[in-house]
Amino acid sequence: MRKPLLPALVAAALLAIPYVAAAQQCPGDEHFRKARGVVEDLQRIVTPDGIQDTYKTEIGGIDQWVNVRGEHRDNPMILFVHGGPASPTMPSTWQFQRPIEEYFTVAHYDQRGAGKTYLETDPESIADTIRIDTYVDDAIELAEHLRERYGKDKLVLVGHSWGTVVGMKAALERPDLFHAYVGIGQVINTATNERLSVEYGLQQARRDGNATAIAEIESISPYPGDQPITRERIIIARKWPQHYGGLNAYRDAGQDYYYSASLLSPAYDCEDREAFFEGNVFTLGRLLDAFLQVDMSGVDEFPIPVVMFLGRHDYTTPSAPTAEWLEQVDAPYKRAVWFENSAHMMPWEEPGKTLVSLLRYVRPLAVPADADTAPPATAR
User: Fold this and answer.
1) Model-level pTM greater than 0.85?
2) What is the per-residue pLDDT across 159-187, written as a single tens digit (0 to 9) for each?
3) Which parts of 278-364 are beta strand (E)?
């Protein structure tokens, strides 16, 4: 079994505290097979006009794995761009997505260098393609593929965490493909996020009298400052904000529910689980410098409706810069939706509110018959 060379990073490698992933043994896989069977049976789409597809298709010159699910073929389709850049959502959709599938068809894909897709190509053969622009091109090509395969005029584009960098750029480049853009844990300016996150961690540590945390945070201060943002500095910068609930509200940095989700996922086998962590390591160093330069604050016009899901306790990608950006941007429709009991992992932390918010603010933008239920085109 191959083992990761470095610690994988929690909640989308670049955007969260390092998570030390010992190679995922296949713990009595026979032991888990029956449990996975229960999940698989519950997850079966049984409606006559439903969609339940998992397949690989060539995107950006390589095979990439796609998962598409929904109870009614005529529902609007969501293209979900996962975080990471190599933290696929496919193995954990069973935890929150089933009710959404009654109202939307949802497409996920394991991006290049991630999960099931990581196993399809020799990693070194695509090393030079691990660039932000390539991921944007992939998302656009996949959107075109989904439109053709499923007979859709446009899609709803959703990005989470790292996926918001890809998603926002794709929406700006090809607005003709999308009804609307939804950012979950949106990245506007990475350097600002870094500063706010560490300030929060230090504030909480001082309130808590946590001398260890204070010493570690002060050892990298000012952060990010004018020193290089190395992996070692990032580890410390993520560690304490997420210890104090900045990744999952009211929880510490532990995230077993997410990283162990694949053990019960019908979509993933043992090799796929290993690839989940190996992909984190493979992509991190190749994207880190470019990711740290991301700055979308200068985007003052957005060509399609934009909805931002904001975690009140998110200090992984802090919500304040996104709320400020949304206030000033000119868009056909804009809406801020605050998740009062969430940090960064809103679909998992508040799945009910995620569903209600998609129905109230997003579906009317994609279904003409629902247009009269759309809320006023303002951000609140």
Assistant:
1) yes
2) 999 999 999 999 999 999 999 999 999 99
3) 306-311, 334-339
